[in-house]
Amino acid sequence: ELPAGLYYRQLDTNEASWTDATLQYASPYLRTLSREEANLQLVAFDTNRIFLAWDDNLLEQIYLQRSTDGGATLEEPALIDNRLAEDAPTAPGPAHLRIGMRGSALLLTWQAGHESGGQCTQYSRRSLDQGNSWEETTLLGSLTGCLDNAQFLPTDNGLILLGSLNDTAYLLAWDGARWSNPQAQETLASFTNPET
């Protein structure tokens, strides 16, 4: 039996078959996760640039891995964030890493409880060179909490981050340089059928 962890396979189009699975990240903790608890995101931005992000919930770490050759090879996983020694014991650990891209700029967002009081906070980090180097981690606008089910939506002018907080949907826009203030979308949180 293979050790618990994250494996990668690639479709060999010449052979019309899958390559053998190669271990990318070993962790016995991953075996204990349910489908609902697992967070894994694979994003292909073009035929060459592929990014893989995941959470190791029990170790409270989040990772990003990159391929610049269409998945033929993967770079070593990069630790994006982890629980800090000074975090409050009840603070949430880093989780729910999401990937967005606009041109050659790569944007990550995730949640953690590093701020004073240990409240959940949404963080952001960007790379202007497709993940070769990274700017400092910043707080995501004036959001007072963490978004549930956050996802990036591409637009002609940037990216939209959509998620919910306290049963209200929020949109935040990223123009490639900065985040907008969160905009509550009450009409998205529920639907009233005029027929009933």
Structural description of this entry:
With 196 residues, the protein is mostly beta strands. It is 2% helix and 44% strand. It has one helix spanning 186-189; strands at 5-8, 11-12, 17-18, 22-26, 40-44, 50-56, 61-67, 78-82, 95-102, 105-112, 121-127, 138-139, 148-155, 158-165, 168-174, 183-184. The protein has a four-stranded antiparallel β-sheet, with no helix packed on it. Strands 9-10-11-12 form a four-stranded antiparallel β-sheet, with no helix packed on it. It is globular. 28% of the residues are buried. The model has no long low-confidence stretch (mean pLDDT 87).
**Oligomerization state of this entry?**
single chain
Q: How many DSSP-defined strands?
A: 16
Mean of residue pLDDT values: 87
Query: What's the SSE pattern?
Result: EEEEEEEEEEEEEEEEH
Distance between the termini: 55 Å
Indicate the percent of residues in helices: under 10%
Which term fits the overall shape?
globular
**Strand order in space, largest sheet:** 5-6-7-8
Strand content: 35-45%
The SS-based structural class is: mainly beta
Largest sheet composition: 4 strands, antiparallel
Count of helix runs: 1
User: Which ranges are low-confidence, i.e. pLDDT below 50, for 5 or more consecutive residues?
Assistant: none
**CA radius of gyration:** 18 Å
